[in-house]
Design goal:
The protein is an alpha/beta fold. The protein is built from 9 helices and 6 strands. A 6-stranded mixed sheet has the order 3-2-1-4-5-6.
């Protein structure tokens, strides 16, 4: 299958997979719509080993079926071995509170996977986005990484996906100066 030129490799956080249930709740609806937009636009979901096991543990029934469809259509990328740009080591050396360190370490695999692919994360995590943004210089983040939250503005998120998920058109973690 030939992918369109606008097809991107997008890292999808487990919290989106968990929220994308059949429940008639605005956040569930938003997450389902975003996953469906990824399929329609023939974007590929990025899975590291860590992400894959998180998905297996926490995904909703809808997300499980969606991932099976994506795999059936070859719209997935497995990072093996997992990406490692040294961010984890830099987080451990960072002067910050233990709470801040734990929060960044919990989701650093999302940022690592995005840096290794097309620089885009779909996640409901806003706190860690703020932490990565605040510490971008100390962490040495080499490129901007789009970080979109389907629960904040589903219409904007879907439009962003339909337009090829351009990093410069999304809220993002800035690169170091």
């Amino acid at each position: 299958m030939r992918l369109p030129a606008t097809s991107r490799r997008l890292v999808v956080d487990t919290n989106v997979a968990r929220s994308a249930s059949e429940s008639q709740h605005p956040i569930s609806d938003a997450c389902r719509q975003v996953l469906d937009a990824m399929t329609t636009g023939q974007h590929r979901v990025v899975l590291s080993k860590t992400q894959y096991w998180e998905w297996q543990k926490h995904q909703s029934g809808f997300a499980k079926n969606w991932l099976a469809r994506m795999m059936g259509k070859k719209l997935y990328v497995v990072l093996n071995p997992e990406a490692d740009s040294g961010l984890t080591d830099r987080i451990y050396r960072l002067e910050c509170t233990e709470k801040t360190r734990k929060e960044m370490l919990k989701d650093v695999h999302l940022l690592e996977s995005a840096l290794a692919t097309d620089h885009a994360v779909v996640s409901q995590e806003t706190n860690v986005l703020a932490l990565f943004t605040t510490h971008t210089e100390a962490l040495g983040i080499p490129r901007a990484v789009a970080w979109v939250n389907p629960a904040e503005n589903v219409t904007a998120c879907i439009t962003w996906i339909e337009n090829g998920a351009p990093v410069e058109k999304a809220r993002s973690i800035p690169p170091r100066a």
